[in-house]
Amino acid sequence: MRVAKDNVDVKMEIPGVVIRQRTGFGDVNGYGKISGEYFTLSAGVDTTELFLGLEGDRCQCPHWGFVLRGQITTTDADGAQETVHANDLFYWPPGHNVKVDADAEIVMFSPQREHTHVINHMIEKVKA
After folding, report:
1. What is the distance between the alpha carbons of residues 113 and 28, in angstroms, rounded to a whole number?
2. Structural class in CATH, domain 5-127
3. In terms of pTM, does the model score above 0.70?
4. CB of 34 within 8 A of CB of 109?
């Protein structure tokens, strides 16, 4: 299945962040349906505050993806960090926070139920 970026629904847009999500984008055995996502993120974006209130105050959803441009660093519960750069494929296991080091665009594939929960949580945090 191919979906153009402009045909992926915008779920959240705030200064410095555009989150697009295509639900029903396949099936990951054991997780059910997956979604294909396209994120546009500005340098300085940090999910720490947005993830407060989630289990462990971190995203508990795994992601598989590709960095189109930019640089992003994830931090796990033990404080271990990993940085991805343009043209890197990545896997982020459950239990991470994200900080955008340089303006970035990424494509991700995530278990739909789990990541929709995280995205809806972020939407509610921004509304508050």
Report:
1. 11
2. mainly beta
3. yes
4. yes
Taking only the tens place, the pLDDT of each residue in 21-75 is 988 877 777 888 999 999 999 999 999 999 999 999 999 999 999 999 999 999 9
Q: Which residue has the tokens 């926070």?
A: 97
Residue 124's H or E segment, with its range, is helix 112-127
The answer to whether the beta carbons of residues 25 and 34 sit under 8 Å apart is yes
**Domain boundary assignment for the chain:** 5-127
Q: What's the distance, Cα to Cα, between the start and end of the chain in Å?
A: 37
C-alpha angle with apex 74: 59 to 125, nearest 5 degrees? 40
2 CB-near residues (< 8 Å, 6+ apart):
none
- E strand segments, the chain: 10-14, 17-22, 27-28, 32-41, 63-76, 81-85, 89-92, 96-111
Cα separation, 116 vs 120, whole angstroms: 6
